[in-house]
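Appendix B. One record, verbatim.
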Amino acid sequence: MEENTSRNFLEEIIEQGLAEGTYKSILTRFPPEPNGYLHIGHCKSICLNFGLAKKYGGKTNLRFDDTNPVKEDTEYVDSIQQDIRWLGFEWASVHYASDYFDQLYEWAVVLIKKGLAYVDDQTQEEIRLGRGTVTEPGKNSPYRDRSVEENLDLFERMKNGEFADGEKVLRAKIDMAHPNMQFRDPIMYRILHADHHRTGSKWCIYPMYDYAHGQSDSIENITHSICTLEFDIHRPLYDWFIEQLGIWPSHQYEFARLNINYTVMSKRKLLQLVKENYVSGWDDPRMPTICGFRRRGYTPESLRNFCEDIGVAKRDNIIDYVRLENSLRDHLNKVAQRRMAVLNPVKLVIDNYPEGQEEMLTAVNNPECEADGTRQVPFSRELYIEREDFMEEAPKKFFRLSIGKEVRLRYAYFVTAQSVEKDAEGNITCIHCTYDPATRGGDAPDGRKVKGTLHWVSAKHAVDAEVRLFDRLFATEAPDVAPEGKTFLDNLNPDSLKVLHNCKLEPALAEAKMVVNEKGIEEPQRFQFERMGYFCTDRDMNDGHLVFNRSCSLKDTWAKING
């Protein structure tokens, strides 16, 4: 087979730079703001930055863009590091934008001395109105022509805490008529009297992203500053600051951000979901956060494979959620051990099976992995099967159990339903059937065939569990789009979580638990419940209470439901 030599545009840029000797090795960075938990969009950026560095023998820094003390917290710093390591990546070194506050301040002074920055006393609203529009030039601030000496004095006094929040800002002095709105005297520093999670009360002025980011890249000698497409209009300003300061020329490249239907990835909206208790927390299995996917049973491999599958593009597009689920199914199909679990049980009694008799049947742990071997599953006269697997009077294409019809019990025998018992409301409480002892193992010696195979659990040996059926958090493909007077919250899926309390599981699942991986991170054990889907243990379980989350069904059923 020929090697696939296709490359994305970033790989082509890197290879050209290496071939031309622009740099000897590459250094990328992943620069999250620690104001929330990472989501699936960040996962793509992580895989891209760390993946490119690994492919070309380079390194990746983790740098926290901690320039807004009001929204940032060490809780988010810790969770971000855990998520990156769980995904399978290690950074060369950890940095913070706050590490560079002294240097950034000194460079701001340099720009003031060059006549390229000034202190503005206008309010935020006055500055906004003065910037003009895409068709109209902005207006110069009345404070734009302050002398260098006055600006130096005011900027130092801003740093010393002499002014209130919002009373003054430092702006770059570029061109208020520039066609690129980013060049219309962008704000470099604002006043915020708030304790910082690392620097405490040392600073009361904080740099803006557009000023801090490029200089932080330059300090670290980042060769490829990879951002999403919404930052392409910021790139000329990124270059302008570096050029005016005459510092190491890092360069920014943009790629299409990850957009998935049935999902929101705004940190503000995700925080709202958490704070207003629409979900149980940042790691709610319905959340698009990396920790939410981990709790739902996603594997690092499935998320990395998904990011590789969707590729790197220059134009934004929307990815179908089913591709994410398929990536999980593909991986779990290879690695998840099989177990039998009855989620909506009804009793099945085999009338001609000897009372008191029990036997152990051999079940395959994973047909995709011979090394996983087999296990012994107890079988007895009284079993549980899924209530949906039986109908008294079944239509022609119902290939499960019905009166007079023969089906196979997985790993066990052929059985034929004979009669039912019902309660006063007419609900079936017990199904009576007979079995063929010659079909042990699931095949008939006379060669007769059956079309249905059912999973089951021995009633005597079953263990009880709570099972949580998670589905998509939003019912519409574009939850951000809402009619007038409505919000994204009106698009929540009311059936995104169903909790089942009377589930019956084979006894091998009694030993299921949360595990700590080789990196010291707690994650669930994952299983395929035969015919039901992929499930994993949940951190809410304890010694007397088993809890499983559905990761995904065995195949996509959403299209049928909503088609």
